[in-house]
Write a structure and sequence with these properties.
The protein has a single domain, classed as Helix Hairpins, CATH 1.10.287. It is 74% helix and 0% strand. The chain is built from three helices and no strands.
Length: 105
C-alpha cells in the first residue's frame, strides 16, 4: 500500500457527513429549493461512498456504474422538481412548502 493513499474510512466519513448535512437541510429548510439542495447532498454522499467502495473493495467497476445511475437520477430529479417549484411559484407567489396544501384548489 502506498504511503500517500487516503484510507477508506476518510471517504466514508465525508460521505456520511454529506448525507447528514443533506438530511438536516431537508428537515430544516422551509422552501422547496432548500429541500432540493438537501436531496442533492444526500445523493452526493451516497456517490462518494459508492466510488470509495469501488476503489477499496472487491466491488470493482460496479460501484462506479451505480454512481453513474445516481447522477442520472439526480439530474432528472432536479429538472422535474425545479419545474414543479417554478409552476408552484407562478401560481402561489411563494416557494414555501407549508403553502403546498393549496395545490388541490
Amino acid at each position: 500500500m502506498e504511503a500517500d493513499v487516503i484510507p477508506l474510512g476518510h471517504y466514508l466519513l465525508v460521505g456520511c457527513a454529506l448525507f447528514i448535512c443533506g438530511g438536516m437541510c431537508m428537515a430544516v429548510k422551509r422552501n422547496a429549493i432548500g429541500a432540493l439542495m438537501g436531496v442533492e447532498l444526500i445523493l452526493n454522499g451516497a456517490n462518494v461512498n459508492l466510488i470509495a467502495a469501488s476503489r477499496y473493495t472487491a466491488l470493482g467497476i460496479d460501484g462506479q456504474v451505480f454512481a453513474l445511475f445516481v447522477i442520472v437520477l439526480a439530474a432528472a430529479e432536479a429538472a422535474i422538481a425545479l419545474a414543479i417549484a417554478l409552476n408552484f411559484y407562478n401560481n402561489q407567489n411563494t416557494v414555501d412548502v407549508d403553502a403546498a396544501n393549496l395545490l388541490s384548489g
